[in-house]
Amino acid sequence: GQNIDQPTEMTATEGAIVQINCTYQTSGFNGLFWYQQHAGEAPTFLSYNVLDGLEEKGRFSSFLSRSKGYSYLLLKELQMKDSASYLCAVSPGRNAGNNRKLIWGLGTSLAVNP
Amino acid sequence: EAGVAQSPRYKIIEKRQSVAFWCNPISGHATLYWYQQILGQGPKLLIQFQNNGVVDDSQLPKDRFSAERLKGVDSTLKIQPAKLEDSAVYLCASSTTRQGSYNEQFFGPGTRLTVL
Fold it and tell me: Across-strand partners of B47?
């Protein structure tokens, strides 16, 4: 089967660094996405990794190890507005027409405290 | 650029009633997705269209759910009859199919359905 695991909840302090882990087992691999979802809102795209290594984008970075089926999202200089759910999603392959089906994790609810 | 539009934003119905949701994707996006998201969980794909063709509907409960995208632009998702367990947020997303792009999905605001 296809499975994505990430912690259910995490808490951190404003100004700190937090790492949200994601492990996956899928039939194929064609990229891993991280999305942010604030309560009551739609998910918004944060990052994409398809090759091993670290991708940095401002305060957010995402890492991928394909051999280990592992990724993490690193959030630096945490702000209160970073309190949200963080969703890990894997594309196991491409369908016809180059479009993607994503397998989604359950999400990690991050609470940033003052 | 306008985002993904969905309506209604909220809907309350009684079990066994019917309901329909509408989605208009970002202009030019060939791929459209309908997801069901239950509180505290990740999105579950119900159906994926490319233009007006169905790419994946393996998780759509076809005895009660139907969806169409007749002209390859906007789409409608229908539930008939609704059950209590259908209470969820229904998200519509769209993406491009450009070669060489990671084609991230852009989501609409969702429709929150409550079945009483």
Answer: B34
